[in-house]
Amino acid sequence: MAEPHIRVTGLTLAYGDFVIQRDLSFTVDRGDVFIIMGGSGCGKSTLLRHMIGLQKPAAGHIHYGEQGLWDVSEVERARLMRRFGVLYQSGALWSSMTLAENVALPLTEYTRLGPAEIRELVSLKLALVGLAGFEDYYPSEISGGMQKRAGLARAMALDPEILFFDEPSAGLDPVSAKLLDDLILHLRDSLGSTVVVVTHELASIFAIGNNSVFLDAESHTMIASGDPRKLLAESDDPRVLAFLTRGEATTTADLAALEPETPEVQWYSDEQG
Ligand SMILES: Nc1ncnc2c1ncn2[C@@H]1O[C@H](COP(=O)(O)OP(=O)(O)OP(=O)(O)O)[C@@H](O)[C@H]1O
């Protein structure tokens, strides 16, 4: 039975008087791969920043279990945030440090583990993301896809309950992006983490997402939520259909006509049939 992990209620996101999104309400269950999607500038990264505790909502609540991220004391909030692992677009590795030193950073900062234990944990995390043996490499010596995976190893250093990704496949070729998607699913399954991903890559959305929220830039609120495949099959909102078919369909009739050629739709049909 699904267990709610994150509950967002009546959330308004704003920069000063400029409201980006209002009235956002959705639930992310434990083990979900939850996609935050929508067109450019609709507020996806802004929502992520609110969810990880970097920006305070103008209104509403974000609950992790029983605790409201913005309703608890600063100390409690910091404790909650320790349960998050975040991978930013760039991977954000320190270029002057080896991969091992990068992954070790959160461990030296937030734990009392000794150097030998840290070395062992670092190797374990790097192995988890397919980078065993790359401990002494510098970020500039490895590919973009490997840098992302090293960033992921660092995000996982403290065994987070929830992994957040901001545009994980940005800048990656399609094969590396697919490898990263596979890795995200593998980690979710093996570690039992909940995963929240900001992306507008359709292939990723359909490959890994089982739940989502769709933010609309014009109406400044969410216009759909749930399993992206179900949204594609069942939504009759032209904005949602256009997004999920790369502009090819805005009605269910368009969608039916597209079905044989559109990879995303085909993918959906294959798995259903
Ligand atoms: N620090 C800021 N101060 C004021 N406005 C901002 C700030 N950061 C972002 N915005 C505005 O908020 C809106 C949402 O930005 P955000 O980056 O969250 O959108 P997004 O959906 O992630 O966009 P993209 O897909 O292009 O990355 C945009 O109009 C942006 O210009």
TrEMBL record:
List the keywords (alphabetical): ATP-binding, Nucleotide-binding, Transport
Domain ABC transporter as annotated: residue spans: 6-244
Query: Would the keyword Ribonucleoprotein be found if you checked this record's keyword annotation?
Result: no
InterPro entries attached to this UniProt entry: AAA+_ATPase, ABC_transporter-like_ATP-bd, ABC_transporter-like_CS, P-loop_NTPase
A GO molecular function annotation here is: ATP hydrolysis activity
**Name of the protein this chain belongs to:** ATP-binding cassette domain-containing protein
Native source species: Methylococcus geothermalis
